[in-house]
User: What shape does this take?
Amino acid sequence: MTLANRMGRTANHVSRMAVGACAALAASAALAAFPGAAHAEQAAVPAAAVAAAPIPRAEGAGPPLWVVRDADSTVYLFGTIHYLRPGTAWGSDKVDAAFAGADQFWVEVADQDDPNVAAKVAQQHGVTPDRPLSSILSAEDFAAFDKAAQGVGASGAALDAYRPWLAAFIVAGTAPMQAGYRPDLGVDKTLMDRARAEGKTIHGFETADRQLRLIAGMSEEAQIAYLNNYVRNGGQIVPKLDQTVAAWLKGDAAEVGRLNRLDTRDIHEDVHRAALIVRNADWTDQIETMMKGSGSAFVAVGVAHLADQDSLIDMLRARGYSVEQL
Assistant: This one.
């Protein structure tokens, strides 16, 4: 779930440049870095004159929230959805209280709104004119890709020089928007706006550059499988997103994890590793650093990082931390 949505969001940046400007680019776009205690960070912004708009209240308990505590540290873990339709009701008292009481606010990528980062990675790792898609896909798969590309205003020929991971971004990125989903209404963006309004510093676990390099670094076999999945199952992108949002709103983490695996581990183990395992291991190190300090933090990352196999919760528990769902 997280990967598919993030990919689609990035593809939207890319496709605005690529569709109609492919030849001029001769390259184009994508997704997250840290080492040690270093992290991307945006400076705190003075509280806005007008408070952020209240989040519509979810029915029942709403999306799941977890907490890790020790004697002097508290870290809240909240799973997000990166795209939402207008009016989606996901707020809850427990999330409001945890967010308000946290000293620090953490998201996946603090510079996620900068399309220049995606463009730079795409130019470096997303285009290989000497190994076009038409030379590595079967004739049948390339014909299906051409049809999918035409559906987003491009063509197989126009995108032929793209690496499979970048081509997948482009063909997958349009359907949610057409169905009324908007990244500016996503949970991450909403909470980032609220953090700025309240003068909280926004910390990022990784940079968009590293996140995208992980995807670009997948084996060609995995990239082709990923592209073919979205080409062959393009009609399921929105229905699966609808199902994921419904499960998330009900707090059904197991169903969210099952749906995420359809677009990660069930496609290829390399996709699962790039989307979740490597990133979650990095983030677990950083959360452990938080726990060794003091104070409280609110962590908002894609719900698949908390609900799927090899989740942050699994990794924290493996290190001896007690993770409680509130």
User: Anything to note?
Assistant: The chain has a mean pLDDT of 82. The chain is about 50% helix and 10% strand.
